[in-house]
Amino acid sequence: MAVSFKSALLSAFALALTLGLSTGASADPLTENFDTGLPAGWTVNNLSQPPGTLAWFQGNEFVFDAQQGAPNSYLAANFESGAEFSTISTWLILPTSTYRNGDTLSFYSRTAEFSEWPDRLEVRFSNAGGTDVGSTATSVGTFSTLLISINPTLQVGGYPEEWTRYSATLSGLTGPTTGAFAFRYTVTDGGLFGANSNYIGIDTVQISAAAVPEPSVYMMMAFGLGMVGYARRRQLRA
């Protein structure tokens, strides 16, 4: 049966509309420099055992300056997350959002110069969102996806002593996913008298959405597919 040029164009338009609706926007872009401390909507949860007196806090310029902005415009965590001898696990959880493959989290981190007490930082992702990190120093709750581990084996000198950029790109998601990123300061044998844990900072946290083609690009793609189908049908008719 012959297919008219008008029918081919309508089919192409329908395809473009379907592609546009199914793609949608990725996570809202974010840049956080911690100029005023803990941002609204971010959650701190100290599950260190036994816990100390201090969790994530405004940076101290007398230890080191921020990566950019005012000297204290960064967030820090240190050995005071735990007691004298402690397994430290202090969470910093970003607000829940909708993510897709290709969305990227980046940040800067460092420790103090000439540090003799190793630090470790993890970046984790939950494909459920929220703030469920369990209830113990070793639990991770729904944040089971480990994206980055800085100094995973707690080596002296294994954590950078100058601001260093890290990034992680989401992949393996089955589609638009309600999720959340989290930083976890996690150090065994930490605390004031422990062999590990000193002081770390994070700064310039950014979330970049995956590149999504403009609707006009989908229209052109669909128009091309429609024209190919129309030409083939004309050939079959001939």
Short description:
With 238 residues, the chain is of the alpha+beta class. The protein has helices at 5-23, 215-237, and strands at residues 30-32, 43-46, 49-51, 57-58, 75-78, 82-93, 97-99, 104-111, 121-126, 145-150, 164-169, 177-190, 199-208.
Describe what you observe in this structure.
This protein is of the alpha+beta class and 238 residues long. It has two domains: 1-24 and 213-238, no CATH class; 26-211, Jelly Rolls (Sandwich), CATH 2.60.120.200. It is built from two helices and 13 strands, in the order H-E-E-E-E-E-E-E-E-E-E-E-E-E-H. It has helices at residues 5-23, 215-237, and strands spanning 30-32, 43-46, 49-51, 57-58, 75-78, 82-93, 97-99, 104-111, 121-126, 145-150, 164-169, 177-190, 199-208. Strands 2, 3, 6, 7, 9, 10 and 12 form a seven-stranded antiparallel sheet that branches. Strands 1, 4, 5, 8, 11 and 13 form a six-stranded antiparallel sheet that branches. Helix 1 (5-23) runs antiparallel to helix 2. The protein is globular and about 50 Å long.
